[in-house]
Amino acid sequence: MTLQVQSQISLRPYNSFGVDVRARFFADAHNESDVREALAYAAVEQVPLWVIGGGSNLLLTRDVDALVVRMSSRGLRVLSDDGESVVVEAEAGEVWHPFVLWTLEQGLSGLENLSLIPGTVGAAPMQNIGAYGVEIKDVFAGLTALNRESGELKDFSLDECAFAYRDSLFKQQAGRWVILRVRFKLHRSVSLALHYGPLQQRLQEQGVSEPTALDVSRAVCSIRSEKLPDPAVLGNAGSFFKNPLVSAELAAELKQAYPGLVAYPQADGQVKLAAGWLIEQAGWKGFRDGDAGVHKLQALVLVNYGSASGAQLLALAQRIQADIAKHFRVQLEIEPNLY
Ligand SMILES: Cc1cc2nc3c(=O)[nH]c(=O)nc-3n(C[C@H](O)[C@H](O)[C@H](O)COP(=O)(O)OP(=O)(O)OC[C@H]3O[C@@H](n4cnc5c(N)ncnc54)[C@H](O)[C@@H]3O)c2cc1C
To answer: N or C end of the chain, less CB within 10 A?
Structure first.
């Protein structure tokens, strides 16, 4: 199938904030050859190429003068199975949550804590998606990416991806690689990550004493559905700020001033603070300016009540950043990818 390129397309349906900007060109890439064709098309038109997935980690602040390529490739397969460890591979355009459900249907554990995260498989390594005590680096078995400059394919091992908290080589080298397919090492035996308090609590409430991976997935889905706004109803990109890492000295000072401070000491001596707690303490929860706002129940989530522009959402984010820096001497970093 040849690439179908459309011109002057609204990206509103393609970003979870529901921000209405236009793309000069737009195409779906169903396979590697579509991606190569898109690169050639962009070169002829002399515009950059910009790859997206589900658009759930983007803030679009202006029209996109580029060829926007949405990864729409499909395919799930088992690559190896020794009776205990199973390596599965998914094409980049597979939607993340149905992929997680597929692994659970195969009787495999490893991805259950990451249930219901919006977006695609191909974008998951970009920021090493994580939730409820698990990140994809914990079950990652490799990926194949296309080098946009040389046109060569490269297989990446875990070490080569430089995964860190909401970070990776692919985020650091934005625009260099197109991730085509991702592999995960999962298990037939049940080895669950249940150290996240609210998850244990939810399983207890549900009367589950010996949970299966499917039980954990269901518990995660029920917590997430209560806690986070559904982008189909209220535009958002999930957590808008990363949880900041600060020195132990600053964390201790803040703890004295604010005994309720939510802080997690890290192995390297730094302390991770809960950004949502800081924003809530500073009084931003439920704040609304026009159609840009801070969610009523979740201070970490910025929302679009209808027709907020990306620039308005960014201006609100910058006001929050300045206020948190003033109150707590902590610099918040924006998590979604800005355009
Ligand atoms: C309600 C809600 C809850 C969320 N909860 C979480 C959470 O718990 N944990 C978490 O980590 N994230 C969370 N997110 C953020 C988001 O779901 C993830 O970052 C997800 O992986 C983004 O996938 P996407 O396909 O939508 O990527 P997009 O938003 O389309 O793209 C994100 C970035 O990846 C690049 N990209 C996309 N696909 C490719 C590819 N194939 N090759 C190269 N680059 C690519 C894009 O250029 C862009 O820079 C949440 C978002 C929402 C809306």
So the answer is: N
